[in-house]
Specification:
alpha/beta; Glutamine Phosphoribosylpyrophosphate, subunit 1, domain 1; Rossmann fold; about 25% strand
């Protein structure tokens, strides 16, 4: 179980715990990383055949031993772990307190275990029915796993809005919030749907039913995950490994989809089921959060440049609450690395209810967004374990570009010569990324020079602006240095007031139709003594007398420049964070999959 939790630690690492059943109920939990739990259980009685474990990302209540999961009932005979948020926990807590229940933690989760206990006090109520009834009374999101001394041979699970997958092994059953911990043990899995509960038993029986007690037939899927993809494979950190995997990841995202020989952009899989909707769309909308939102800004620019169709990019967290205007001929892209982002999923459902066609763009097969969308495209980045997204970002961009090129070709919106040139250049992107990775040592020198800066400013224009946003996000995520991304021309409308000799400014200046404009902005920064780190196309000498530091990247067609521009910024965040002693794979306060609102 502890080994399995390690594969989930990127989802949260404030505290960890396990509950074991073997006659009695034994609970061990500790604040901090999983290694703290592992030290704590050394020499203790861990003999058991049934158990549940959890690694926490704190919502209600600070990280502590008391607030760590599993939580136990007052009678110490039921244990429960939970991902999600119980929105009506205060109301339920007050009701349960009046019934004599005493609470010991600050968490919303403790309400659930007391509620299950309260229901089981009724004559003859079994654990499965108690969890089902409790789930009916809980508002919010949850993935529960529950064990009880009274039924020592089963684990009961329930799911609403937070992912849950059941693994079917040889003489053993598993449950996890992601498929990754299961890959070592089985390739056969069942993805629990929203509003379903299940009982897995020590005799191999799997009972799945709806929250209203309708029996369901489990739909068994086959996992396609290699264990090696979940290991560091000789790299110091997952983030480092995943940056170096970007050429392969983009190549995999194009494989079988991009044909440069005969000039076709074809075979976008299940997406073709909605080809008419794609070709007749009057508007495209991207719904996303964080890094996926930045990728969507690039998608918007590509769509509008090639297709001349209005394209919007919305923060999913805002879209879901603003009573959005949706038309039947809208095509909405829900973009999420994990396919489980709570805000994106909720926004998707709003757009779907409005009659739009939903296309999922995610990296995890079987994820909720992939299942909820009408059609979808997998990015094929492979497992991304580092909390700060790198290879998922570039594969999201490549997937969006494939869709735009396909529509442009089908609707004859670009000339044959232009299309052939784009396809040829696109097929060369993985090699361009591979060349760009050679900047690592140069970026490491720059990182050492500026690691003690208190603030950073990132500036870009055109395709460079979303990359400036992404570069700033990576730095603040990993190093905890305040950083902002801006369109370069907007600097004089406010941010220029920040410029002094202590402010490093990363200027993204690849060769293109805005080169002279960016150079003028750099001159304005230099005149105010700002420190300029220029990312320029190889051989470009225009920044030689202006920039304090220059990082060169290979020349690319302008539309594909995001793939090479982002690499130095990922390295910059990585190396500055290392120099400051940060945990680059598990930055503070963050989780990989944000499955709560």
């Amino acid at each position: 179980m502890i080994d399995g939790l390690r594969y989930l630690e990127y989802r949260g690492y404030d505290s960890a715990g396990v509950a074991l059943l073997n006659g009695g109920l034994k609970v061990y939990k500790r604040v901090g990383r999983i290694s703290e739990l592992e030290k704590f259980v050394e020499g203790k009685d861990t003999d058991a055949t049934v158990g549940i474990g959890h690694t926490r990302w704190a919502t209600h209540g600070a990280p502590s031993d008391i607030n760590a999961h599993p939580h136990v009932s007052e009678g110490n005979d039921i244990a429960l772990v939970h991902n999600g948020i119980i929105e009506n926990y205060e109301e339920l807590r007050n009701i349960l307190k009046k019934s004599g229940h005493i609470f010991v933690s600050e968490t919303d989760t403790e309400v659930a275990v007391h509620l299950v206990e309260d229901i089981m006090k009724k004559d003859g109520v079994k654990l499965l029915d108690a969890v089902r009834e409790a789930a009916l009374r809980i508002k919010g999101t949850y993935a529960f796993a529950v064990v009880s001394k009274s039924e020592p041979g089963i684990i009961v699970v329930a799911r609403k809005g937070s992912p849950l997958v059941i693994g079917i092994g040889e003489g053993e059953l598993f449950v996890a919030s992601d498929p990754y911990p299961l890959a070592k043990h089985t390739k056969k899995v069942v993805y629990l749907e929203d509003g379903e509960v299940a009982s897995i038993s020590i005799d191999g029986k799997l009972d799945v039913r709806t929250i209203t007690n309708e029996l369901k037939t489990p739909n068994i899927k086959t996992l396609d995950i290699e264990i090696a993809a979940l290991e560091k494979s000789g790299y110091d950190h997952f983030m480092q490994k995943e940056i170096y995997e970007e050429p392969r990841a983009v190549e995999d995202s194009l494989r079988g989809r991009l044909y440069s020989v005969d000039g076709n952009v074809l075979n976008l899989g299940g997406l073709m089921e909605k080809e008419n909707e794609l070709l007749n769309a009057k508007r495209f909308i991207f719904l996303a959060c964080g890094t996926s939102w930045h990728a969507s800004l690039i998608g918007k620019r590509v769509f509008e440049e090639l297709l001349r169709i209005p394209t919007e990019v919305e923060y999913a967290s805002e879209f879901r609450y603003k009573n959005p205007i949706i038309y039947k001929d809208d095509v909405v892209f829900a973009v999420s690395q994990s396919g489980e982002t709570a805000d994106t999923l909720a926004a998707l459902q709003v757009a779907k209810a409005g009659g739009a066609t939903i296309v999922g763009i995610c990296n995890v097969v079987g994820s909720t967004i992939a299942r909820e969308a009408h059609v979808g495209l997998y990015t094929h980045a492979g497992p991304e374990i580092g909390v700060a997204s790198t290879k998922a970002f570039v594969t999201q961009i490549s997937t969006m570009m494939l869709v735009a090129l396909h529509i442009a070709q089908q609707k004859k919106l670009v000339s044959e010569d232009r299309l052939h040139a784009l396809i040829k250049d696109f097929s060369e992107v993985p090699e361009k990324i591979k060349e760009t990775l050679k900047v690592a040592e140069r970026v490491k020198e720059v990182a050492e020079k500026y690691k003690n800066a208190k603030d950073f400013l990132y500036l870009g224009r055109g395709y460079g602006f979303p990359i400036a946003l992404e570069g700033a996000l990576k730095l603040k995520e990993l190093s905890y240095i305040h950083s902002e991304g801006y369109p370069a021309a907007e600097m004089k409308h406010g941010p220029i007031a920040l410029i002094d000799e202590n402010l490093p400014v990363v200027v993204l200046a690849p060769r293109g139709h805005l080169s002279e404009k960016i150079l003028s902005t750099a001159e304005e920064i230099k005149a105010r003594k700002g420190k300029i780190i220029a990312v320029v196309t190889e051989g470009d000498t225009s920044f030689k007398d202006i920039a304090d530091d220059i990082i060169e990247i290979p020349a690319t067609e302008e539309i594909f420049s995001p793939f090479t521009l982002v690499i130095p910024l990922q390295f910059l965040a990585y190396y500055i964070s290392l120099s400051l002693g940060r945990d680059v794979d598990k930055p503070r306060n963050l989780a990989k999959s944000v499955t709560v609102e």
